[in-house]
Automatic annotation (TrEMBL):
One of its GO terms (biological process) is inositol catabolic process. This is Inosose dehydratase. It holds the Pfam family AP_endonuc_2. Belongs to the IolE/MocC family. The keyword Manganese applies.
Length: 299
């Protein structure tokens, strides 16, 4: 069963304004993102590139809207740079989030990722990590996990299309190589589905390791086009590969909610369903998502 005191719902600003595709929602301000999240009934937000880097400015913007920060993406580059460089960047990121009261740091290895290249076919050119690269990632993540614990925080690994850790086999390998106490998981329905995996089966396997959740659905007709036309990850996003729960046609939401509920999941569920805001009004879709979650959880 869900504990309404310990289950929280948030949104990612990428639904409004996309960090990797600046032309999507480029005109929208972080104030609009936060205001519309609150208006839709959410209490938390992740951090986007438009959010203030000044702590007091961001806190003020959050407080007047009754919002909190629950996470912010961190990019690891263990495969391409010295470990010390990622560690130093992580410490600054960790300390900023800690000052905002966040308990989780979602991260992924992106050193050889193609996710940010608009002209690179996703399925044909996805990186295949070497044994040495997996080892570097695993040992680096464990060190970040230790550093997070210094602040009573945890990291949560975000498997992601185009990074080399997107399939269940790749995720299994990383999970097997790392200490569960140091490297928990960020469960993302959309990326699991996009990769061709059963998100319910993945969740069932790793639910005890999940510390943060991203909800999004996938549009099957767009997925077929991405494969057939050799589109990139970002082209897929532009075409509408992702949408909010309650709108797509590929995720078994009853199965997802059942497993989370039976395992008394506590923490944040974040709507991260990036679309072109000119085609899919972010407020409208945020309201749709919040309504859907309420129907499923009663919260």
């Amino acid at each position: 069963m869900f504990n309404k005191e310990k289950l929280h719902f948030g949104c990612a600003p990428i639904n409004w304004t996309n960090d990797d595709l600046p032309e999507l929602g480029g005109e929208l301000t972080y104030q609009q993102c936060l205001s519309e999240m609150a208006l839709a009934g959410f209490t938390g937000s992740e951090i986007g590139n438009k959010y203030p880097k000044d702590l007091d400015t961001l806190k003020k913007a959050l407080d007047i809207r009754g919002m909190r920060i629950c996470n912010a993406w961190f990019s690891c580059e263990f495969t391409t740079k010295p470990m010390e460089e990622t560690i130093e960047n992580f410490k600054k990121h960790r300390d900023f989030l800690h000052a905002l009261g966040a308990k989780v740091i979602g991260l992924a290895e992106v050193g050889v990722s193609i996710q940010g290249y608009e002209d690179v076919p996703l399925f044909k050119k996805a990186p295949i990590l070497t044994d040495e690269q997996f080892e570097k990632i695993a040992r680096g993540l464990e060190e970040l996990g230790r550093l997070a614990k210094e602040k009573d925080m945890e990291i949560a690994y975000h498997y992601h299309m185009g990074t080399g850790i997107q399939s269940l086999d790749e995720l299994d390998r990383l999970m097997d190589m790392t200490d569960p106490q140091l490297v928990p998981l960020l469960f993302d329905t959309g990326h699991a589905t996009f990769a061709g995996e059963d998100s319910v089966a993945l969740l069932e396997k790793y639910v005890k390791r999940v510390r943060h959740v991203h909800f999004k659905d996938v549009r099957s007709e767009v997925l077929e086009r991405v494969k057939k036309e050799d589109l990139s990850f970002l082209q897929g996003v532009k075409e509408g590969i992702f949408t909010v729960p309650g709108d797509g046609d590929m995720v078994d939401w009853d199965g997802v909610f059942k497993i989370l509920g039976e395992n008394n999941y506590e923490g944040w569920i974040v709507i991260e369903a990036e679309q072109d805001p000119a085609k899919a009004d972010p407020l409208e879709y945020a309201i749709k998502a919040r309504k859907f979650i309420q129907e499923k959880t009663g919260i």
